[in-house]
Amino acid sequence: LSTETNGMKVEGLETNYFSYTFARTAEGEAKLDLSTGYYGRRWVYTFNFSSPIMGTYVKEEFRTGRVKHRDFGAFQILSGITNAPVAGTNMPPAGTNAIPTAPPASLAGLAYIFQTGETPDRLEFLTATNGVEFEDNVRTGDDNPDKFVTYSYNLTASNTAALVVYRGSDRDEYTLTFTQGAQGTFIRREYRSGALHDTDIGAFSPSSVSLQPPVGNPGGSGTNAVPPSALTGQAYNVLSGITPDRLEFSTATSGLLYGDNTAPNSFTYTYAITGANTASVVVRVKVDRWDEYDWTFTADGAGTFVRREFRNSVLNDTDTGTFSRVAGN
Question: Which of 106, 115, 220, 241 can pair with 301 through a Cys bridge, CB separation 3.0 to 4.6 Å?
Answer without folding.
Answer: 220
